[in-house]
Amino acid sequence: MLLKIFLGLFLFFGSFSANAQAIFKGTIVDFETGEAIPYATVFLANTTLGTTTDEEGKFSMYLPNGNYEVIIRILGYEGLTFNLPASMVQPQGYKFMLVSVDEDLDEMEVNETRDPAWYRNLDDFKRYFLGTSLNGKACEIENELSMILDDQSEPGALIASSRDILKINNPNLGYRLDYLLNDFRFNYKIGFVTYGGYPLFIPDSTLSRRKQRRVERNRLEAYYGSFQHFMRSIYAGKSVAEGFEIRRLYRKDDPVHKGKFIDSLGTELITSIDIRRNRERREYLEFSDHILVTYQNEKESPQYVLGMGRGVRKSQSSSMRMTVDSLEIFENGSLSDPFGVVVEGYIGWERVGDLLPIDYFPEVEYIRGVQ
Predict the structure, then answer these.
(1) How far is Cα of residue 356 from the mean position of the Cα atoms in its chain?
(2) Were 168 and a residue from 177, 234, 268, 346 both cysteine, which residue would form a disulfide, CB within 3.0 to 4.6 Å?
(3) E strands in 20-100
(4) Greater confidence, 109 or 233?
(5) Which segment of the chain is annotated as a signal peptide (predicted)?
């Protein structure tokens, strides 16, 4: 079954600069009582940058130059999510007032027993959210019993949410993810997956030197050929040099098999994708129809071809199309609309288990194509 996926991660926008930082500080209090809220989580979505409030409800953190989605969360209160450019941070700090919420007594308690159908739904959620790659299979959700898995509200669909921030351990990449799941939906009939959320990446600081070297190799392998790598190469105008081959993909409906398509591939290589710059020097990604993106420097994973009835190919192919006319693109590979590009194929197969923080940059050259 061909799976399609919206890369619906709520990425922050902007680039990093080690020379430009702001101090983002504040106090978090209860809206009604004014009392401090300790141990609230404050983090920047899809980065390794986050903190918690102290016993007085205070926090402080550095923001590299850029534009961020800030997430404030704690159980028992409505969370806050807002955009914050580092250049606009006020030095005197902020006060955030959270509104308490009543717990739903009818909801199943976390420690209650689940029925077999719930566990089957959990297996499906893990398969389509964490992924079936080696990295995805190695991931563990530490608080999976906090999840609400609904296969009844919408026929033929699995809808997932969580009462708490998901605690996901990814030993292969050396991170624990605190993942605020905003949306997950899988349509069994057409094999269509959408998910979105706000992850914080927490590096494992307990690794030995040997394990840290192995984690670094795994991160490099996960990065090269990824959507993040591809978008950064497009922004820099180096997609060919970085090992990507782009061709036009022509798709039409299959007259015999309803819901399927017939694809034909353009013979001419596309050496670059248009990046348009407006008067404010903001840059926008634009391409029409479908494109086929082939990463030449790595072969497919054996896990990817399971059930396809064919062997491993020496390159990784993915198709992409834009759902909007134009997307703002940033140097770090992020896009202004997280649902602005639909991906099928290899990159679409790679899920949260292969995800890296947007502030990850390879420090050493990876010997690609050598396994």
Answers:
(1) 8
(2) 177
(3) 21-30, 41-44, 50-52, 58-64, 67-73, 80-85, 94-98
(4) 233
(5) 1-20
What does the CA dihedral 278, 282, 288, 291 come to, rounded to 10 degrees?
A: 140
What count of Cα atoms within 13 Å lies in the side-chain half-sphere of residue 145? 8
Q: What are the respective helix, strand and coil percentages of the chain, to the nearest 5? A: 15, 40, 45
Residue 21, beta-bridge partner list? 64
Report the alpha-carbon distance of residue 84 to residue 27 in Å, rounded: 16
Distance CA 343, CA 4 (A): 6
| DSSP secondary structure code for residue 299 in this structure | P
Q: Which residues contact 59 (CB under 8 A, 6 or more apart)?
A: 25, 26, 27, 28, 40, 42, 51, 52, 53
Render pLDDT for 12-57 as a digit per residue (tens, 0 to 9): 334 444 345 689 999 999 999 999 999 999 999 999 999 999 999 9
Residues 6+ apart with CB under 8 A from 336: 13, 327, 328, 329
Residues 304-311, mean pLDDT to the nearest whole number: 93
- How many whole angstroms separate alpha carbon 243 and alpha carbon 294? 8
Dist. CA 36–CA 339, nearest whole Å: 37
pTM: 0.83
The answer for residues whose C-beta is within 8 angstroms of residue 96's C-beta and 6 or more apart is 26, 27, 28, 29, 72, 80
Q: Residue 333 to residues 14, 128, 235: CA-CA distances in angstroms?
A: 9, 23, 7
